[in-house]
Design brief:
By secondary structure, the chain is α/β, with parallel strands linked by helices. It has two domains: about 1-240 and about 355-409, 3-Layer(bba) Sandwich (FAD/NAD(P)-binding domain); about 240-350, Polyamine Oxidase, Chain A, domain 2 (Alpha-Beta Complex). Helix content is about 30%, strand content about 20%. Strands 8-7-17-18-19-16-20 form a seven-stranded mixed β-sheet. A five-stranded parallel β-sheet has the order 10-2-1-14-21, with helices on one face. Helix 2 runs parallel beside helix 5 (about 145-155). The protein is globular, with a radius of gyration of 22 Å. The model has no long low-confidence stretch (mean pLDDT about 90). The structure holds flavin-adenine dinucleotide. Flavin-adenine dinucleotide (FAD) binds near residues 243 and 351.
């Protein structure tokens, strides 16, 4: 079965299209995940020179993050991991289509992919149904993180400032005597100004910014004036549940390709809530045995792991492995589990957005400010491809075009 959870085409970003005046305008992008970096590259391609990406953490990628679970050179994604399409090369090519800069090498986007069609188990029972219908793509030795870094970040790295959390966005400023429409306050008190701001912070951060009790949320971002009520309602209405991934290095490969802790029936009824234990190196031709446990959703991650320390999360995930495989996890474990809990990331606060009403999602993607000078982008603003890396990239490209369109004379 062919399936593509990816836009068929991406917004075209014609080369050097804008006027000299627009070229000099200042654009700030908040967040250097897939959306923010695609926005920056699209603007560069269109000839905008004053673009700055402010990233709160000490690395780019956001929910794309790769780790080395052993002392070898193996790197694995602990955020986005799959290209949810049977034709991953087509997805990657179309994400990059029309974004070439002068001097780019056509070969740069080439990366080895593998077809991912695991044997599915539900507890101890094999499911022929899932094994037959489920097929998608994965990176062989690269990762989503390294792909974004090599293909997008490398081209805009001079525009990116790491360790620069934005604590306040002031918009609707009176534009007299060369004043800019937007002011951004960094956590260190520094103020930056811009004609247009593209805000790509995750929905989890927007939720914090409108929470009644903001005192506990040290990473919280404030909007001044407060976000419009309709937008606040949409932020509340769409869910971005907790989730985590734990990697275990094992002596023996005692586990099949993929085992679901949910029954087939419950997974088909609610494919968003899940706990899976799977061979993280399947098809990668590696010696290391790495077993991953992923738990996503309010029930599977929030209720089971919420409020635990990293050590306890590792222990609880090992308990799941032991339950599924008769204690083999504890017997085979080498070293400490590697835990990535996305709900605990101060600048992320969740995994990805779950479906919700189209009306609210449309509102999430609408610009605010008297002249629409604050533009929102990110996986959560995509109507059809929310929760996915290609959706985040699409929205970054769309936001870049909006920014230029708004500035057109
Ligand atoms: C466990 C997990 C598994 C997933 N699996 C897949 C998968 O297999 N395939 C797939 O396509 N997608 C998957 N996804 C979803 C995918 O990772 C996201 O949709 C995508 O990476 C979102 O990109 P983004 O740019 O919208 O947001 P982000 O990547 O979250 O980027 C937002 C950036 O904003 C920064 N930021 C936040 N607050 C501030 C601030 N105040 N100031 C400055 N910067 C700030 C953050 O640090 C971050 O870098 C998965 C996600 C998770 C968590």
């Amino acid at each position: 079965m062919q399936h593509h959870f990816c836009p068929k085409s991406f917004p075209s970003t014609p080369k050097d299209i804008i006027s000299d005046e627009s070229r000099r305008k200042q654009i700030l992008i908040v967040g250097a995940g897939a959306s923010g970096l695609f926005a920056a590259l699209s603007l560069k391609r269109m000839g905008v020179v004053n673009v700055t990406v402010l990233e709160a953490s000490n690395d780019i990628g956001g929910r794309l993050k790769a780790v080395r679970p052993t002392s070898s050179d193996l790197t694995l994604d602990v955020g986005a991991e799959w290209i949810h399409s049977t034709d991953g090369s087509r997805v990657l090519n179309s994400m990059m289509e029309g974004l070439a800069l002068d001097g780019d090498n056509d070969e740069s986007n080439k990366v080895e992919l593998i077809t991912y069609q695991p044997k599915w188990y539900f507890g101890k029972r094999r499911s022929k149904l899932m094994t037959t219908i489920y097929k998608e793509t994965k990176f062989k030795s690269a990762t989503w993180y390294s792909w974004l870094k090599d293909n997008v970040y490398e081209k805009v790295k001079d525009n990116v400032e790491l360790n620069s959390p934005v604590s306040e966005i002031r918009y609707n400023n009176k534009q007299e005597g060369g004043e800019k429409a937007v002011e951004v306050v960094l956590a260190n008190g520094e103020i930056r100004t811009a004609d247009v701001l593209i805000c790509t912070v995750p929905l989890g951060i927007l939720k914090q910014s409108i929470a009644k009790d903001r005192t506990s949320a040290s990473a919280s971002l404030q909007f001044n004036p407060a976000l419009p009520i309709k937008l606040q309602e949409a932020i509340h209405a769409i869910d971005m549940p907790p989730g985590l991934r734990v990697l275990f290095q094992m002596k023996e490969k005692f586990y099949p390709d993929l085992t679901s802790a949910n029954s087939l029936f419950t997974l088909l009824c609610n494919p968003n809530e899940m706990t899976l234990a799977y061979d993280a190196t399947l098809g990668k031709d590696r010696e290391e045995n790495i077993l991953a446990v992923v738990a996503i959703g309010n029930e599977h991650a929030g209720k089971r792991f919420g409020g635990m320390s990293q050590k306890k999360v590792g222990k609880e995930a090992l308990r799941i492995v032991d339950d599924l495989f008769d204690g083999q996890g504890t017997v085979n474990l080498i070293g400490e589990p590697l835990v990535q809990d996305w709900s605990e990331e101060p600048f992320i606060r969740g995994t990805y957005t779950f479906p919700g009403s189209n009306r609210h999602r449309r509102t999430l993607g609408q610009s605010i400010g008297e002249s629409g000078q604050v533009i929102f982008a990110g996986e959560h603003t995509s109507m059809k491809y929310y929760s996915l890396v290609p959706g985040a990239a699409y929205e970054g490209r769309r936001a870049a075009l909006d920014a230029v369109g708004m500035m057109a004379d």
